Amino acid sequence: MIAIIDYEAGNIKSVDNAIKYLGREAVLTRDRDIIAGADRVILPGVGAFGDAMSRIREFDLEEVIHHVADKGIPFLGICLGQQLLFETSQESPGVEGLGILPGKVLRIPDGEGRKVPQIGWNDLTYPVKGRLFEGVPEGSFVYFVHSFYVDAADRDIVTATTWYGTRIDASVQRDNVFACQFHPEKSEAVGMQILRNFLEA
Question: Residue 183 catalytic?
Answer without folding.
Answer: yes
